[in-house]
Amino acid sequence: MDGNANGLIWEVSIWEFVFVTVLLAGGAAYLTGKAVASAWQPNLQLAAYVLLLGLATRFIHFALFNGTLLSPYYYIVDVLVLMAIAFFGKRITRARQMSTQYSFQYSRSGPINWTKKAAADS
Question: What's the Cα-to-Cα distance from 17 to each of 33, 46, 51, 52, 98, rounded to whole Å?
Answer without folding.
Answer: 21, 22, 17, 18, 34
